[in-house]
Design a protein that fits this description.
The chain has about 190 residues and is mainly alpha-helical. It has 2 domains: about 80 residues, Orthogonal Bundle (Rna Polymerase Sigma Factor, Chain: A); about 80 residues, Orthogonal Bundle (Arc Repressor Mutant, subunit A). A two-stranded antiparallel ribbon has the order 1-2. The protein is globular, with a radius of gyration of 17 Å. About 10% of the residues have low confidence.
Length: about 190
């Protein structure tokens, strides 16, 4: 694999950080920053155009939350990026909830749904409703929820999601299709 040295370096730094070596975090951040920015950009593409948070700001807020994670035993880079993606989604949901509260039930925050989901799916979905539905899906089928997290929010291709989850491309395709149908039904309610 072309990035094996980088992958090994990230995993080694994560494990060193988990064992309490603070200097490992200082070395880790520059190595993972670009990939975290790509994940954040995937999230921000689905946000409303006038959103006050930019991809760099999202990475910075996620970084602050990740640094606060104590007693986390980072398994490898996949584990780290999965937690980082979830953290970014939670930040955006928190922003959406705050905006909704500030407007006292006013406009809801909408994110664009991938056109490939279904022709009958509305072009925008309430981010809070999507987060709630995704949390329910995670209880029913955690792997499908991870696939959605990586594909929809993280912007990964099917092959990249398969690599991140260490499963086959065919499995990701099946999980993606099932999750999209299930989420579409949940959001239509």
């Amino acid at each position: 694999m072309p990035n094996d040295p980088v992958r090994a370096e990230v995993t080694g730094l994560l494990q060193a950080w988990s064992s309490g070596r603070a200097e490992a975090l200082d070395k880790l951040i520059p190595v993972v920053h670009q990939e975290l920015k790509q994940i954040a950009a995937g999230y921000m593409r689905r946000e409303r155009p006038e959103h006050t948070l930019q991809a760099t700001g999202l990475v910075n807020e996620a970084y602050l939350r990740l640094v606060e994670q104590h007693n986390v035993s980072w398994h490898d880079r996949r584990h780290f990026y999965g937690i980082a993606a979830q953290c970014m989604r939670r930040i955006l949901v928190d922003y959406a909830r705050q905006r909704k509260t500030e407007k006292r039930g006013g406009d809801q925050t909408f994110v664009a749904i991938d056109e490939s989901i279904d022709a009958s799916t509305p072009r925008g979905v309430d981010l809070i409703a999507l987060d709630d539905a995704l949390a329910t899906l995670a209880e029913l089928d955690p792997r499908q929820a991870q696939v959605v997290e990586l594909r929809y929010f993280g912007g990964l291709s099917i092959a990249e999601a398969a690599e991140q989850l260490d499963i086959s491309v065919a499995t990701v395709k099946r999980d993606w299709e099932s999750a999209r149908v299930w989420l579409t039904c949940q959001l239509a309610r």
